[in-house]
Amino acid sequence: MTEDFLSAPPESPLVISERSVTVLKQPVWIWSVPVYFYLGSTAGTAAALAFAAQTADAYRFRNVISKARGISAGSLLLGSVLLIHDLGRPSRFLNMLRVFKLSSPMSVGSWLLATTTPLVMLAAAFSNTSSRVLHRIGSLSGAGSGVLGLPLAGYTGVLLGTTAVPVWKSSRTLLPPLFLSSGAASAAELIQISSLNISELKALARLGVFFRSAELITMLLLSRKLRKNRGSSGPLRSGASGKLWKAAVGLALGGLWFHSWKPTSRRMRILKVVTGIVGGLSLRFALLEAGKESARNPGEFESQGKS
């Protein structure tokens, strides 16, 4: 390769450009990472929804608060297991907590996960306790986890956008709101599975429509933004990533259609949850596969840095 580079005539800068952009390492993440991304965004937004309900009317929305905290705790536990599975051993996660670097999304995300998880556990454990002291601890923990929940839900989008992978870098401004809206929609729909009163169901249904619409709009904006770069939307239009992306868009539309039914219909609520989970996972797997494809062929995405 050195000989070819040296033999390139000076009037052929494109040869040098092509060789410089092809040095890109493909993402090595396995299936557990996009699942962790989904669980993290769902957990973070569920904690934030619980805190919002607690602030609005803790007594009226007590069932929503309890269920949201339970969903957040369960998602964080499972997500932590998947993250450690990807890392290989727990000590690697602990090593990431040795320093705090604000400029590193990975460092910030590790600390958010390590801080939010115990707060969510305390909030979930003491949601329905009769002890005033323990209830107070649960409320304070719920407030803390609610504040930290939103950055926890969106940091993975920031993490992807700060890499050199063309598709992710091109959409860096849209990935955090996409993950936030997707996670919030799934959280609102998961809470509706529980036994709630009619006012709680209606409030969650409205939130579900809002966040699912925001997710769909952000997906369309992302596709449009990538199309402005030469070929950078290719992985989202063809191949496995393209099929997954189209499935995610279709399932988001299906979720909105299910929201048009009465919120008291348990069958519709279950369908909303299923489409939300499958759609959320399809979205993240599509982005992962698209990132791998764009890293394999970075020459096709050389204009992404100019967007």
Task: Give a short synopsis of this structure.
The protein is mainly α and 307 residues long.
How would you describe this structure to a colleague?
The chain has two domains: 29-162, Formate dehydrogenase/DMSO reductase domain (Formate dehydrogenase/DMSO reductase fold); 164-299, Four Helix Bundle (Hemerythrin (Met), subunit A), CATH 1.20.120. The chain is 75% helix and 0% strand. It contains twelve helices and no strands. The protein has helices at 2-7, 13-21, 32-57, 62-87, 90-96, 105-125, 132-161, 166-170, 175-192, 198-227, 239-259, 266-296. The longest helix is centred in the C-terminal third of the chain and has 31 residues, at 266-296.
List the helices and strands and how they pair.
Layout (H helix, E strand, L loop, with lengths): L1 H6 L5 H9 L10 H26 L4 H26 L2 H7 L8 H21 L6 H30 L4 H5 L4 H18 L5 H30 L11 H21 L6 H31 L11
Helix pairs in contact: 3-4, 3-7, 3-9, 3-12, 4-6, 4-9, 6-7, 7-9, 9-10, 9-12, 10-11, 11-12
Question: What percent of residues are in strands?
Answer: under 5%
What are the low-pLDDT stretches, counting only 5+ consecutive residues below 50? Answer: 1-22, 302-307
What is the CATH architecture descriptor of the largest domain? Answer: Up-down Bundle
**Helix and strand run:** HHHHHHHHHHHH
Q: How many distinct folded domains?
A: 2
Instruction: Report mean pLDDT, rounded to a whole number.
Output: 83
Total DSSP helices: 12
By secondary-structure content and strand pairing, the structural class works out as: mainly alpha
Largest sheet: none
> What is the percent of helical residues?
over 70%
Find the CATH topology of the largest domain.
Answer: Four Helix Bundle (Hemerythrin (Met), subunit A)
Overall strand count? 0
The rounded distance between the terminal residues' Cα atoms is: 30 Å
What is the class of the largest domain in the CATH system? Mainly Alpha
Spatial extent as radius of gyration: 21 Å
Which shape, going by the Cα principal axes?
globular
